[in-house]
Amino acid sequence: MGSAVITARAAATFEPVGRSVATARAFVRDTLQGWGYNDVVDDAVVLTSELVTNAVIHAGTAADVLCLRSEDGVRVEVADHYPEREVPLQSTGLDFGSPDRENGRGLLLCAALAARWGVEYTPTRKHVWFQLDLPERPVGIRSAGPLLPTALLPVADQRVRVAVVQIDHSGSIAAWNDDAAFLFGHAPDQVAGKQLTDFVAWPHTPGTNTGIAEALRLSRWEGSYGIRCADGRTIPVYASHLRVRDTDGEPSTVCLLVRDHERAVLQSPVRAPVSDSSAENRTTDPFEVFIGSPAPDDLDGLLQRTVERARDMLDADAAFLLLATDDETELEVRATTGLPSARQRFARVPVEAGTGRYGSARMPAVHEDLTAVPGAVPLLTDTGMRSVVTVPLKVEGRLTGSLGVAAEAPGRYSNEEALRLQFAADRIALAVESARLGELERLRRGSLSFLVEASDLLAGTLDRDQTLALMAQMTVPTLATWCAVYTIADQSSDPYLSYVLHEDEDLIDGLKALLSKVSPPDPVPTPGARIWSAPSEAGHRAALSTSTRSLDHDAPLSMSTATRTILATAQAVGGETVVLPLVARNRVIGMLTLGKPSDDHFRQEILELAEDLSRRAALALDNARLYSERMAISQSLQRSLLPPGLPDVPNVEIEVIYRAAGEGNEVGGDFYDVFPIRDGAYGFAIGDVCGTGPEAAAVTGLARHALRLLAREGFPGPAVLERLNAAILDEGARSRFLTLLYGELWPQEDGSALLKVVCAGHPLPLRLRQDGTVEPAAEPQPLLGVLDDLELYEQEVTLDPGDVLLCVTDGVTERREGTRMLGDDGLADVLSTCTGLTAGAVAARILRAVERFAAEPASDDMAILAMRVPEPPLA
């Protein structure tokens, strides 16, 4: 990093697989946030994503990511291990290509976003690096003022109180003096150890990372914010922060706070520039005359300073500033003073003339009395303002905004005031537009990072319910205060409310109940967000009805829980609500609904980001739907291949355990069946088709149904298997060889059971006698599906009371752990411990032994069939 001193480093290596890109992004984000470099996190994540993609996807090698921190910035290096690939260097004059191409975009982004970047080679690898510099953060200055007459000194209360609050390195309150307790109503023991952010009403700026946490980390900071008092009020304060450290080196921040109207006690006057010999020849910058110096370096601070100076300049009661959209068709409220800013922020009005439209945007206009022209300035409706003057902000002839001041008295302004305000607007228009473009660029970078991570999350699941939850969780609270997802099963179905989420979990049930009573929005396929007023209207009606029924109560504390829930829900849906269609494969499959609390509005950039997200979410939701449908069909077909149930065989216990290998498979290459043939005779089978999955399951179905049909036609065991062998061979290329144990069972009057079995290439059945001896119950014969002519024979076995016949597939005997295998001998050892157990207990013990033999999950299908002749009850 040149001559900069490296103060920290972090490194990680990511394997050449697709998921490594998301893991690398998370690594860089966590590292930079841990270092406190929030200002450059979004750019670093975007660049890392592209460069790691080049390494693990295009180069096909592992990616080494190294983060280096210095006092003024951060450097990130991404290296791969494929030096033979040529990387176009900026100095070579090679064409970077189109941004729409699949590759090469990483270097384009480096050139666009990084302060410095480059490509370096070593004999074994190459790496691309980029450096992001931290923006300068001004610190406070000290200044001494001249002697002033008493009459010119700032006015303060008789007893000026200065709250002294000390914050430790974790942001917790370590000290809280008596003046702080007096001003804010919180005793020291009530706030000790709590986060300062719990009490600060910070002027949040959407799309930026500035906040009280960042202010507390600066060496010195001065400014205004609010403190929430014990009685629920918010007191505006002026604060001066100083970062210090104790003798142990632990940092903390000392905060001095006074009421905002007493800010002169703490506020550092702006130091005048040092004069020199050419001072007389310099002209004062008109921008600094109007805004003051230093000028705010963020858009919202600049706009707020602008409206405050405009109000003071014309001695007005209120002032406002609106910014134009890119197409100059709408104006968006961005800063106000003297007006309810929370209600108006980000509200939009059309530029064209007409009722309820901002007709005076493109040229200066003076309204002597707004009551004579209702709706001429929609922003001032129901505010009590009577006279207003508005002027446009233009840059190179293009409308970028509108500045206005207003007064409660009529006839306050004339063309002279309009000219003064226009002169000021001309001085600040370029700075406002520059700051606006800078904000849009930051939002664009943040949006790009947000969409990249959202796409990864949505692509990581094929579960419909999880996809719905992800859609909502990605929008709340990042894009909206609450979210509802409607889904449409098919073209003839009505939209169904599938998921509801609010940033306050206590309001989710009330919000869901309210939306359930509202007719869902129309499934219009037109892209873009459209306003939906039904929720706010329904909430208003519910709140009005509830308030009417509660008029006999004297205090809010007397309200019932249900009443408070209804009122809170109405407040939650009282703002702007928009609907975005979820369109996938040219069909509307649902709607994404986003909402704000009372009198709040969405900004255009957020709606555009939500529209991009809705397109990705719609495709993910439709993919999950298709996957669910195919899984349901697959599982239905698989279940049809399994026996409907086990018959009740007199005087014989039968238990079956079946496990198919592979996620989502209910049937594989192993199968079993127990079925009645005729009165007093039952057939049983257990087999194993070569392979696993759907192809093996198809032969499974053929074998099971053929066995039942042939056995019930009266064919003996060998004839049944010979005909099944011919049917398998008739399948041609789809045929697979099959090992099969087939038998017929006749319960006897003396309590025993007679079995006739044919073992065609299958693991031999094992017989467990009452004395614990285990022996094979059949002899091996040729398997099916290989030879045309088979000569099979059946063998008779008699199970005495207490005897067990165990039949398994090779998934049991071939269970492996490294070079060890359970085998026939191991199975016989386990079976020998099962004397006196029921058939179900025998099957369960065999399964536990198989599972415990190896730590890894089974990779082959398994079937266990246990038959036991119970002992007669004792007299």
From TrEMBL:
Q: Where are the transmembrane segments?
A: none
Is Hydrolase there in the keyword field? yes
The record's listing under CDD domains reads: HATPase_RsbW-like, PAS
Q: Which Pfam family is one of those matched by this entry?
A: SpoIIE
Keyword Kinase on entry: no
Q: Where is the PAS domain?
A: 164-200
Q: Which UniProt keywords apply?
A: Hydrolase
Query: InterPro entries annotated for this entry?
Result: Bact_Sigma-Reg, GAF, GAF-like_dom_sf, HATPase_C_sf, HATPase_dom, PAS, PAS-like_dom_sf, PAS_fold
- What PANTHER family does the record tag this protein with? STAGE II SPORULATION PROTEIN E, STAGE II SPORULATION PROTEIN E-RELATED
UniProt-recorded name of the protein: GAF domain-containing protein
